[in-house]
Design goal:
single chain; about 70 residues; alpha+beta; two-stranded antiparallel sheet; two-stranded antiparallel ribbon; about 25% strand; elongated
């Protein structure tokens, strides 16, 4: 990349800014990699929350996490 070159970014609400590629395929590949990276981070956070709150239900709600007691099925 040289000084003065323009870079195009794509804004996705859940993933943030992602640099666009030269082709559609390259751009989609970058989006897919960003989604996978986000899923891995979410799984790590979920495991930590489940470990810290045993017996509770942990759900991702938008950008935050909901921790609630599991209700009996009576």
């Amino acid at each position: 990349m040289k000084i003065g070159d323009k870079i195009t970014f794509i804004l996705l609400p859940d993933l943030g800014l992602i640099e666009a590629g030269d082709t559609i395929e390259e751009t989609m590949d970058r989006i897919n990699r960003a989604e996978v990276k986000q899923e891995i981070e979410d799984k790590k956070i979920r495991k930590k929350l489940e470990k810290a709150n045993p017996g509770c239900r942990v759900l991702k709600m938008g950008d935050g996490w909901l921790i609630s007691n599991k209700a009996p099925l009576d």
